[in-house]
Amino acid sequence: MPQKSDDLKPDHRLLYQTHSPFARKVLVFALECGLGNRIEVVHVETSPTLRNEAIFAANPLGKVPVLSVPDGMTLFDSMVICDYLDRLHTGRKLIPHKAPKRWHALRLHALAQGMCDAGVLYRWETNRRPEDLRYPPLADGQKTKLIETFDHLESVLDPKTPITIGHIALATGLDWIAFRDLVDFKTGRPRLSQWYEDFCARESMVKTRFSGQTHD
Ligand SMILES: N[C@@H](CCC(=O)N[C@@H](CS)C(=O)NCC(=O)O)C(=O)O
User: Fold this and answer.
1) 52: Cβ below 6 Å to ligand 1?
2) Could you count the other beta carbons within 10 Å of the beta carbon of residue 136?
3) From the CB of 65, is ligand 1 less than 6 Å away?
4) What is the per-residue pLDDT across 5-17, written as a single tens digit (0 to 9) for each?
5) Which of 40, 156, 172, 187 has the fewest Cβ atoms within 10 angstroms?
6) Full-model pTM
């Protein structure tokens, strides 16, 4: 972890949900940057079918994560918060500034974000939506995106690359897919499986394990 901040008091407030891959990405990012002690984590619950006023007051989309920063501003979404946090420490940047590292990191982040978006839609179509309102072709389409993504990762992931926002988004996304038991990404993908296991052993991941259920 690039920087220690044991002597610092929390001066940022993070609206967080213990089963959100996007919120966990932000917290893992903060821990990897040595900024954990600057952040007060506030546990909330929200869903598109169960409005949370505190979250809407901070983000008109009603979604977490949201970060309140010392000047009173609130930041969302997860990518914007990570960009903000990366400017707050003096260690190695997890969102590289220079090409081509920057484009590799941002592209992997986009892939991980898209993987989570597909996972959320798949979960609605297979689990959350009342059964008579589900549309199986939509579930199949989202599952295809997930499988294509896992296969792509199996062929391109390089365990020797220093970690970036892309890796953090990927690990928190995959761990959410495993937590929700959505689609198997391990069988037949030894490289991806090993990378995932190794990343999950990091202190930042161990400290932020998923828990809890969606409140609808
Ligand atoms: N693009 C957003 C996605 C955030 C998001 O979808 N958060 C979920 C929790 S996993 C949420 O708050 N959902 C409530 C809702 O959609 O109303 C980000 O990266 O922060």
Assistant:
1) no
2) 9
3) yes
4) 455 689 999 999 9
5) 187
6) 0.96
